[in-house]
Amino acid sequence: MGSYQEHALESASAVELVVALYDGIIRFLYSASAAVERGDQAGRRAAVKRALDIIIHLQARLRMDVGGRPAEALSEFYATIFAQILQASQSASRQKFEHAIDCVRNVRDAWRQVAKDPKVNPAPAQVMTMPIRRQGGLDGDEFSADAVGSRWNA
Predict the structure, then answer these.
(1) N- to C-terminal Cα distance for the chain?
(2) Which position among 18, 21, 46, 133 has the lowest Cβ density within 10 Å, counted as fewest Cβ atoms?
């Protein structure tokens, strides 16, 4: 993973991390669907495994004692989408993968809305600058990110 992506994940809120995990599920389901198109069984299985691993991770982190009914609904969603993905993989069906992608995307979009709520996901309190100095690049130019500044607020 590139350093920009690592920095983005390190400074992300819990809600933003959940959105990133959903993005990962979607990415792996698209990969599985493309593998079906190519007739690549190993690629399909690897992509499905990665998507299912994320779902298992999300399911395991649910706190029913704190989350109440919304946590129960997410648990049911994870169980249902898990079964749909297994069925899509077993039948090597692009249509079933695309249906699963649509379902995951709908829930991911709801999490994105939550991420925009300042009560749930407050903006960072400070502006972060990244001191980057590169000398002698391909064209010999020197630049510094300090001059521009960098504000991370997803």
Answers:
(1) 19
(2) 133
Tell me if the pTM is above 0.85: no
Helix (H) or strand (E) holding 144: strand 143-144
Least Cα distance to 82 among 18, 20, 29 occurs for 29
| Whether residues 80 and 152 fall in one domain | no
Q: How far, CA to CA in Å, does 71 sit from each of 57, 75, 86, 94?
A: 14, 6, 23, 30
Domain that holds residue 132: 125-154
Residue 99, C-beta contacts closer than 8 angstroms, at least 6 positions apart: 84, 88
Q: How far apart are CA 92 and CA 110, in angstroms?
A: 28
Decide if pLDDT at 8 tops 60: no
Write the pLDDT tens digit of every residue in 100-153.
999 999 999 999 998 887 776 666 544 444 444 444 444 444 433 333 333 333
Residues 51, 79, single domain; the answer is yes
- 25-66 pLDDT, tens digit per residue, is 999 999 999 999 999 999 999 999 999 999 999 999 998 888
pLDDT at 59: 94
